[in-house]
Amino acid sequence: MTLSTDNPDIQPLLPRLAASDAGVRRIALMALADLGDPDSLPWLVQAVASDPSASVRAEAAALLEAWDEPEVVHALCVALTDAEPAVAQAAAHSLAQLKSHEAGRVLLPWAEHPVAFVRASALRALRELRLPESAAPALLALADTDPGIRREAVGILGWLRHAPALQAIALRLREDPDLEVRRAAAGALGFASTDDVQRALLAGLQDPAWAVREEAATTLGKVGDLGSATALTQALADEYWQVRLRAARALGRLKLHAAQPALITLLGHSISNLRKEAALALGELGDQAAMTALRGAAEDQDPEVRKAVRIALAQLQS
After folding, report:
1. Per the CATH hierarchy, to which homologous superfamily does domain 256-318 belong?
2. What is the model's pLDDT at position 92?
3. Neighbours of 154 (CB within 10 A)
């Protein structure tokens, strides 16, 4: 990229861009970015690559977040390797704002960089782009020794709805030692319903980490079937109310009628969010046998619960 010195908007900034004071250069870069002129990009790219001040390099990396030009993306990828963490973090943040597939193709090789932070940052940026070509490096990254990278890889494959990865993601849910990877895997399986997915999600309902159980219950609400009824009903008694809430929601979405007695019991729970979800689920089930219990909850002390009861009663009466 060629530095523009004849642009009349940039010319007044040139002395400050060359100043010995890092603070002056930093303010000049901000003024340059405010122009919104493509001619300013070479100056920002130069600053992120070679300014002697880490604060200036970090500012330049942050200011480049609105640009998807290949030269800019490459400069930000290089900045991920900067020795100063503030610069690398600013570059990672800007890369995560990319919007174009063209920019994603520049990112692809960096998803296999030897430095874990660089790999994770590249994968995180690729996830948002939903670039089909990112499936290949994401599949490789599922076996990475770094759990943050495995988590980003799962996210990419889930967002892409990449069917060939279903078995590998299910394996991450069942066996990954990192709970955040298992949680991400439970969420990523929501785009398909296969026997392997069902088995993995049901196993996820027994995970030692409540956050994984919560995510598994949520995803079963999207892709589950009648075979999920027993496990989800049992999850209504989970020691964590967050899991119980998601299980109640899933049972309603799937219209699993066997859970109705347990849902009616939840109408008397001390946690109002659970009472609300139980009421909504009973309305989804559509069984008028729940009318008496719902009418008994119509004067609940929580207005959100009363609203949920009204909605459920209206569904049963329609």
Report:
1. Leucine-rich Repeat Variant (1.25.10.10)
2. 98
3. 31
